[in-house]
Design brief:
The chain is built from ten helices and 17 strands. It is of the alpha/beta class and about 400 residues long. The protein folds into three domains: about 160 residues, FAD/NAD(P)-binding domain (3-Layer(bba) Sandwich); about 100 residues, 2-Layer Sandwich (D-Amino Acid Oxidase, Chain A, domain 2), CATH 3.30.9; about 70 residues. The strands form three sheets. Strands 1, 2, 8, 9, 10, 11 and 17 form a seven-stranded mixed sheet that branches. Strand 9 and strand 10 form a beta hairpin. Helix 1 runs parallel beside helix 4 and helix 6 crosses helix 10. The radius of gyration is 22 Å and the shape is globular. The structure holds flavin-adenine dinucleotide (FAD).
Length: about 400
Amino acid sequence: MDKSSSAFDLVFAGAGCAGLSLLWHLGHADWAEWPNQHILLIDPAAKTQNDRTWCFWEAGAGPFEAIVHRQWSQLDFYGAHDSQLQALDIAPYAYKMIRGLDFYRHIGAWLATQPNVTLVQDEVLAISDNTETSVVVTRRGEYAGKLIFNSIPHLFEPLAKPQHIRLLQHFCGWFIRSQQPIFDPTRATLMDFRVPQSTDTRFVYTMPFDAQRALVEFTVFSRALLPHADYDAALQAYLTTHLGLADGTYAIEDTEFGVIPMTDAPFVRQPMPHVVNIGSAGGRTKASTGYTFQRIQHDSQHIAAQFAKPTAQSLAQSLREPMRARAMDGILLNVLDKQRYPGHRVFSDLFQRNPASLIFKFLDEQSSLSDDLRIMTTVNLPAFIKGAVGWGASVLRL
Ligand SMILES: Cc1cc2nc3c(=O)[nH]c(=O)nc-3n(C[C@H](O)[C@H](O)[C@H](O)COP(=O)(O)OP(=O)(O)OC[C@H]3O[C@@H](n4cnc5c(N)ncnc54)[C@H](O)[C@@H]3O)c2cc1C
């Protein structure tokens, strides 16, 4: 192994969504020291493929507006037994999509103008802490850093105990092109539960790009993955039954498959004095929904603000998770995992009995206590009380 040794102010172990976002926010914060920071980014991936698409809601223009691939101001929702769509009232939000490749290129072009940042294509094997610095060990070298931002999930796993819930959100998407113009590109389908429901939670979402092209994605929340053929069969059946697309009337231009862990196990933000976990590795995935992209942006903005405006609070203290949000996620996850009430009913109650904008605010953890109480009057209370007791008991057993 060719061992090289260098010292940096900041080292990013992993340069995906969280690493690149934080770097971008640090470089765009009002941080006078930025040009003097000696920064290293380590990732084995060249990031030349569109390995994922991120969807999220946002009110107004965001920092990455220039690379938003599509956005929709109209979202539709279907309950499991509804033939009628429900048009969701999402104002002031828009539902947006950013392609991973556009994001990597956008940040990559900016990084090329930042002489203080070095990129190394290499695999991190371990991180260890010393008194003054941390050392990142890669396949080909060792790098000392005063502070390491780690987004590699397997290096520091969450503190999972047997009582913690470990659901998986797994999804298979087809980028299709139909022969006929069948989509309305101004409206997307957020959740369609009219697919056969098992004991888990299953839905399809559809994001049209134009009248003939759309991403149609079959999503499941369950403890285990399905055989691959089941995702394809579910998508094929959905296209035929609900979009009127028989075999031979459309082409699959690309596919996407992903698995997002959903857990109430606590994530460690600072596993070592000089290491901060970010992204999914830092618990930024919303436990009850899997949405992560916007949480990464908010976290990155928050960390960058701590650098730009030094406060008495340490970074670790400022990253503490609000208990109310943890409780809400834990309860919802408990209801879904323990099947205290069918998942499709849980989401139908939420979206059909509340303005979608309020649910988005709630999921963004921006809702007030009275908003949360209002939402609680629209869910199946016995199931949620059992969920609260189940989640509370698991917390007390920590
Ligand atoms: C297919 C897919 C679709 C998704 N869609 C959405 C969505 O629509 N909306 C949403 O909010 N969230 C979505 N998510 C969830 C989440 O937003 C993404 O997973 C997001 O990329 C998480 O960012 P991250 O930086 O934590 O992880 P990543 O973006 O995966 O970055 C981790 C980086 O670490 C690197 N790495 C791994 N091992 C090593 C190693 N040993 N050494 C060095 N580097 C290493 C990887 O190459 C990668 O670049 C999706 C996830 C997937 C998988």
